[in-house]
Amino acid sequence: MNALLICSGGFDSVTLAYRLAAEQSLGTLLTFDYGQRHRKEIDAARLAAERLAVPHLIMDIGHIGRQLSGSALTDDIAVPHGHYSEENMKVTVVPNRNAIMLTIAFGVAAARGHDTVALAVHGGDHFIYPDCRPDFIRLFSEMQTKALDGVAEVALLAPYVTTDKTEIARDAARYAVPVGDTWSCYEGGELHCGRCGTCVERIEAMALAGMADPTPYQDKQYWQEAVARVKSCTP
């Protein structure tokens, strides 16, 4: 396998990069600049590519991202605090983001001779993001098989799509991922905020996996409150 991995620079995609590199199947990292609130993830992806000694492509689709307005990830909208299982997290949806990125990635993979496009979506994303769900992954793969019929054979690899982030944390430990050099926080401050959905999920996953978290957070305790609030609302 010679995989083109969509890598944001976050905990999930960098972990998958290290896993594929250990399996000697990582070819290239592809990062999208779609006009997100900050560039810290992009810098983290660049660092991962350097350490893994693979090419790093940065695709500027800011002109597309500017049309996908209304998300806390692209507009001047307050990033909500709490767990991903809370309804208010839907304000972080960028419409069709994964569908757009995957479409481009398959074209790049076909043009550059990669046989696989890899993506680190996981089960914890299903409630909020429709283009992270198993049905989407399956149907998108079928669509790309048709789109590239007679041109190239490119598979879609999403190994975490039916598992939770705790499994990603276990892989991070297994493959010695430098977690402190990945960037997940939506706020983009000097430190991870510890309160946005992706920070809460990140801290929770490493705690459940029994993994030491070297990441400095502005608030390292809030995640327990957010998790407890969700559990109290679960029937």
UniProtKB/TrEMBL annotation:
Which residues does the record give as ATP binding sites? 7-17
An MF annotation (GO) of this entry? ATP binding
Under Enzyme Commission nomenclature, its number is 6.3.4.20
Pathway listed for it is: Purine metabolism; 7-cyano-7-deazaguanine biosynthesis
Q: How is the cofactor bound?
A: Binds 1 zinc ion per subunit.
Q: What is this protein called?
A: 7-cyano-7-deazaguanine synthase
The keyword ATP-binding belongs to this UniProt entry's keyword annotation: yes
The domain of life is Bacteria
Where, by residue number, does Zn(2+) bind? 185, 193, 196, 199
Q: Which reaction does it catalyse?
A: 7-carboxy-7-carbaguanine + NH4(+) + 2 ATP = 7-cyano-7-carbaguanine + 2 AMP + 2 diphosphate + 2 H(+)
Q: What CDD domains does the annotation carry?
A: QueC-like
Question: What's the family?
Answer: Belongs to the QueC family.
Its annotated function is as follows: Catalyzes the ATP-dependent conversion of 7-carboxy-7-deazaguanine (CDG) to 7-cyano-7-deazaguanine (preQ(0)).
NCBIfam families for this protein: 7-cyano-7-deazaguanine synthase QueC
A Gene Ontology biological process annotation? tRNA queuosine(34) biosynthetic process
Kindly state which keywords UniProt assigns to this record, in alphabetical order.
ATP-binding, Ligase, Metal-binding, Nucleotide-binding, Queuosine biosynthesis, Zinc
**Names of the cofactor(s):** Zn(2+)
Q: Which gene encodes it?
A: queC
**Ligase listed as a keyword:** yes
Q: Which species is this record about?
A: Halopseudomonas bauzanensis
